[in-house]
UniProtKB/TrEMBL annotation:
Membrane-crossing segments per the record: 176-198
The name this protein goes by in its record: ER membrane protein complex subunit 7 beta-sandwich domain-containing protein
UniProt entry tagged with the keyword Disulfide bond: no
Natural source organism: Kwoniella pini CBS 10737
Start-end of Polar residues biased regions: 233-256
Chain spans, region Disordered: 233-267
């Protein structure tokens, strides 16, 4: 009984390793990265840190006991930018069929066919393609990258931002520059505008009055402004009184005429 239990435990440990895959790859050295410049602590991650494996000094790596499914492989090498890969592992169990036909030439009896089916160790399809977060992965029947995977760095990480040059259009969009341009235009245009208005006496007088009122308001001379307003209303009052007087003298008094007529009739 103990032997059977030990055998069962051994099978539980061996069967998962048989039904799993070992993913392997190699960092391609070149002008961008060499074996000497490979940073210490470089590793490969699966599914955003679910499993991590260190990269060896020669640039190779192996991820053992990878079950069937879909994975995202990310090289994590400080100072360098690599592309991520979408890996699909699918198992296929082939069936080997042998159908020997045993026939007896001396007899007219029907031949009996014997088919022996023997299952073989499953084989795995490893489909590798570049991973793009904004795109759907290609189906497994599409073209795949080779396995073991050859990983090539895209570029070095560069955190330095070049200083931008002089941009005239950007300067014109600045509020300070716009205010300066407006002030310069008004500096040259305002004297010409005032000179043109000086030729018209009525317009010049109106502008002078408006400027005087604005100066009073700006100097907080409320008493003077109020007196000017009252003076303007008093000047308009005699004109209205004379108009009313003239209009009253021209209109006859109908009530007096009617009264005089009645008196004359009474006499």
């Amino acid at each position: 009984m103990r032997v059977f239990s030990h055998l069962l435990a051994l099978l539980t440990l061996v069967i998962p390793s048989i039904l799993a895959v070992t993913l392997s790859g190699q960092i391609q050295f070149g002008n961008l990265i060499t074996r000497e410049t490979l940073p210490v602590g470089s590793k490969v991650s699966i599914n955003h840190g679910e499993r991590k494996v260190w990269i060896k000094g020669d640039g190779s790596f192996e991820i053992s006991n990878v079950d069937e499914g879909e994975y995202i492989l990310e090289p994590i090498i400080p100072g360098y930018i690599f592309n991520s890969y979408f890996i699909t592992i699918e198992s296929i169990i082939p069936i080997e069929s042998n159908s020997p036909i045993n026939s007896n030439s001396n007899s007219n009896s029907k031949s009996d066919s014997e088919i022996s089916i023997s299952s073989i160790e499953p084989t795995f399809i490893i489909h590798i393609q570049p991973f793009y977060p904004s795109k759907l992965p290609l189906p497994i029947n599409s073209i795949s990258l080779n396995h073991p995977l050859i990983i090539t760095p895209l570029s070095k990480e560069d955190y330095f931002i070049n200083k931008g040059g002089m941009n005239i259009l950007g300067m014109l969009k600045s509020p300070m520059v716009l205010m300066m341009l407006f002030s310069a235009i008004m500096l040259f245009a305002l004297p010409k505008l005032t000179a043109a208005l000086a030729d018209d006496p009525e317009m010049a007088k109106e502008m002078a009055d408006t400027r005087a009122r604005m100066n009073n308001f700006q100097s907080m001379d409320l008493a003077g402004s109020l007196s000017n307003m009252l003076a303007g209303s008093s000047e308009n009052a005699p004109v209205t009184n004379t108009i009313q007087a003239s209009s009253g003298s021209n209109t006859p008094n109908r009530s007096g005429a009617n009264a005089g007529g009645k008196k004359r009739r009474g006499r």
